[in-house]
Amino acid sequence: MHATLGRGDPLEWYNEWSLECSRAIAYNLPDVQGLPAIIDFLEAVGSKFLPSLAQHLLFQVMIDECLERASPTLTQYGNIVFFSTQQERSRSKEQNKNQRKSTKCPCQLPKNYQNRYSHPWDPEECRNVEIALTGKCIDQPNKKLPEKVIKEIKSKIHNPQFKHLIPKFVKKGWLTNDHKNKKAFLRDLLII
Fold first, then answer.
1. Which superkingdom (predicted)?
2. Less Cβ around it within 10 Å: N or C end of the chain?
3. What global pTM score does this model have?
4. How far is CA 8 from the centre of its chain?
5. Using one digit for the tens of pLDDT, what is the confidence trace for 136-147?
6. How many angstroms separate the CA atoms of 123 and 128, rounded?
7. What tens digit of pLDDT does each residue of 96-110 get?
């Protein structure tokens, strides 16, 4: 059996290997019997997707062989790899979930307000900022923010990390940049 020929997704590779292994066992082929079959399988696993697990299991096989202990069968090693693959997949999904884009925004409020410090959308798409600067939200006309929150958001726009957003807010119409009414523009930026 040629375990090292597999490609692609570890689960697909394992399923293909498992099917071939079952057939070979049914025909009592020597390719799936004894220590050489186990070593071949673990080397393939190491070259494909789980090098540290394969190295550990190969080491364990050698120890069992030296101590003349009964070692797991090829099928049992296959099960170990399968469950490790599942664990690795779920860990990968969790990491991807945690690595989603997180954008700093002036609406980053205390955690007790909407249970978040940041969000994945850009500040110029943030409904809380829109409400704080315009008094309303086009997408959610009934949404309101407490006055304290509105003042916090307006004050955060002055922080150096958010000043670059002011032209974007002006462009969206959330702030007015009317030079004739400079007082109104400054009032929009200041906490009143």
1. Eukaryota
2. C
3. 0.48
4. 20
5. 888 788 888 889
6. 9
7. 665 556 678 888 755
